[in-house]
Amino acid sequence: MNSETDFHALAAPWADELNRNTAEWEARGEFPWEKWKTIQRSGILAVPFEEQYGGRNGTLTETMAALEGLGHVCRDAGLSFSTSTQVVSVGTPLQAFANAAVKAEFLPRIVSGELVTAHAITEPANGSDAMNITTTARRDGDDYVIDGGKMFITNAPIADLFLLYVRTGTPGPFGLSTFLVERNTPGLEVGPSLGKMGLRTSPLSQVTLDTVRVPASRRIGQEGAGFLILDHVMKREILYSFSITLGEMRHRLERCIGYAKSRRQFDQPIGKFQAVSHKISDMKVAVETARKWLHDTGAKVEAGSDAAVDIAATKLVVSEANTRTALDAVQIFGGKGYLTDTGVEQDVRNAVGGTIYSGTSEVQRNRIASLLGL
Predict the structure, then answer these.
(1) Which of 26, 123, 237, 345 is catalytic?
(2) Complete domains list, the chain, with CATH
(3) pLDDT (tens digit, 9 = 90+) per residue, 22-64?
(4) 302 classed as catalytic
(5) DSSP notation for 96-147
């Protein structure tokens, strides 16, 4: 790999395998393990990690390019979402904050996709309010004992490793810590996969923690460094997952253009009607706006600049544009857009989740207002 374009093209040779029987997997709401093997072979999981762990030494923006390419090629949005979670949830913070022994033990198997990972942040009562996490970890000799529960945890039903965000101190950002916990640890119980509106092939569930004993050596970073780690991870979670969204929006635009040229009504292509052509024009503007926000914000984060407002704005702009253009695509396709076998209605169901996960649209607006001093 020697350019961002090369990383962008990683998924393209695997399109047929990634898209095989997508509707059937989605209808069953099952994680497609056979396609996970394709994701492993593609090399996408390895992009942002160091060569010594089996990675490709890709930069943040190169990782974004690889995931955008995946979104453009892969019609299984749930699989793509689980892939983004795999890249960012545990491997990313381990590479940045873990000790050498933990990295050597786990990173090669995370990078290869042998171990599936999840990070457990959200709680039943707190939602996006990470500063009020109530799951606790208390020191007991050489161990910590963790009690509490997490909710809506992506990949949890299939995960081998969890990164738990818990409270070790007083309320506020400096009272949070993170721990790496294996699935078979006594006291960690993963609930059944929860049915949901969209992204159905990406499983999520509740996680219950009852006197879970974890060695202090599995704490990632210093005690109280959880907010620093969370900030590092969430910036990338938004940039990575919504780079996939950008790829999906590009594909939607291309499909709508093709349909508007080929579908005829009243003796002319429907693209000749202003009501249709304006929707597609707005869709093009939405794609390019999303691209600019993602690329500019990615460059700021990569340069180490303050990008707090940019991250919130990027998440808001891209998630809401995705929902809007998905609804417009249904209108453009008309009756066919309402049918399940065209996959257009599935785009709407998948898009709605983007305005909720990684901090709702309302939370992003509150964050922007707060950072503006309001």
Answers:
(1) 237
(2) 4-111 (1.10.540.10), 117-224 (2.40.110.10), 227-371 (1.20.140.10)
(3) 999 999 999 999 999 999 999 999 999 999 999 999 999 999 9
(4) no
(5) HHS-HHHHHHHHHHHHTTSS-EEEE---TTTTT-GGG---EEEEETTEEEEE
